[in-house]
Design brief:
Strand 1 and strand 2 form a beta hairpin. The radius of gyration is 18 Å and the shape is globular. Helix 4 runs antiparallel to helix 6 and helix 4 runs antiparallel to helix 10. About 45% of the residues are buried. A two-stranded antiparallel sheet has the order 1-2. By secondary structure, it is mainly alpha-helical. The mean pLDDT is about 95. The chain is built from 15 helices and two strands. It has a single domain, classed as Farnesyl Diphosphate Synthase (Orthogonal Bundle).
């Protein structure tokens, strides 16, 4: 039975509530309490919750999800755990050495570098634990969800993109190389979140293919808009220091295309994403709204 579409604010509220419920609780008596505090600090620091919201909106586009609500929440929190782990490690001195994330001191600044590394490690493992324990989902679908998240996060996905990002500092990349780097670093987890929503909604191969075309477009659009904001935004609006990419001499869509060209490219990617949603009709409204949000956001 199809459910009425939820608003994106409803989706975000649901994800926030699930994170609070499924995270390890603080316990001053635990010897590992500092690790738990760092995990909670990073995951509860706010953010757009873009990836789990996309997962919910993708399931909704299929008329679902068709599994128990608690298991859907586990999948959403797993996706956000994986994303937050990547942010903690991306901010480390060995990577981007950032001081602010979401308007607050980065994890290694609020705690220490060793604790931040361990907190990221623990959140990554927690992501897989949450999926593995979603017992209301068939074993076949749980395996598909685990495989999707693992493939998107490792050496053929997000981590590969991060390695390329480090290797390309000071280089002037052409558009195909820049697109490939960010299709991995940023886009892979976005594509995984959308695919995981499709799996929860019972999508067939045609539905998953349409969702992947959508997610590929918005994954790049998200990074293009990030590059624009890094070059034009403020610390107050972004929650982090702007101009970091230029200061590190990183290749970006903004440096390659200029502001006008980057804005036009982001809009064309948004249109590509919206075209991919045609098989879903009105049920794809939530995904369409997310595509428009991605290229219009100011943070």
């Amino acid at each position: 039975m199809n459910r009425p579409p939820a608003s994106l604010d409803d989706h975000r509220a649901r994800v926030e509530a699930a994170i609070g419920r499924l995270l390890p609780p603080p316990d001053p008596a635990l010897p590992e309490r500092r690790l738990i505090e760092a995990m909670r600090y990073s995951l509860l620091a706010g953010g757009k919750r873009l990836r789990p919201v996309l997962c919910l909106a993708a399931a909704e586009a299929l008329g679902g999800p068709h599994v128990p609500d608690d298991d859907v929440d586990r999948i959403c929190v797993a996706i956000e755990c994986m994303h937050t782990y990547s942010l903690i490690h991306d901010d480390l001195p060995a990577m981007d050495d950032d001081d602010l994330r979401r308007g607050k001191p980065t994890c290694h600044r609020a705690f220490d570098e060793g604790t931040a590394i361990l907190a990221g490690d623990a959140l990554q493992v927690l992501a897989f634990e949450l999926i593995a324990e979603a017992h209301g989902i068939s074993e076949r679908n749980r395996l598909a969800l685990l495989t999707t998240l693992a493939t998107a996060s490792g050496a053929s996905g997000m981590v590969a993109g991060q390695a390329m990002d480090l290797a390309c500092v000071g280089q002037a990349l052409e558009l195909p190389a820049l697109e490939r780097m960010h299709a991995l670093k940023t886009g892979a987890l976005i594509r995984a979140a959308v695919r995981m929503g499709g799996l929860l909604g019972g999508a067939g191969e045609a539905g998953l293919a349409a969702l992947d075309r959508y997610a590929s477009a918005i994954g790049l659009a998200f990074q293009v808009q990030d590059d624009i904001l890094d070059g034009t935004g403020t610390a107050a609006s972004l929650g982090k220091e702007p101009g970091a990419d230029a200061a590190r001499d990183k290749p970006t869509f903004l440096s390659l295309m200029g502001e006008r060209g980057a804005v036009d490219y982001a809009r064309s990617l948004c249109e590509r994403a919206l075209d991919a949603l045609s098989p879903f009709g009105e049920r794809g409204q939530g995904l369409a709204e997310m595509a428009r949000f991605i290229v219009a956001r100011d943070r």
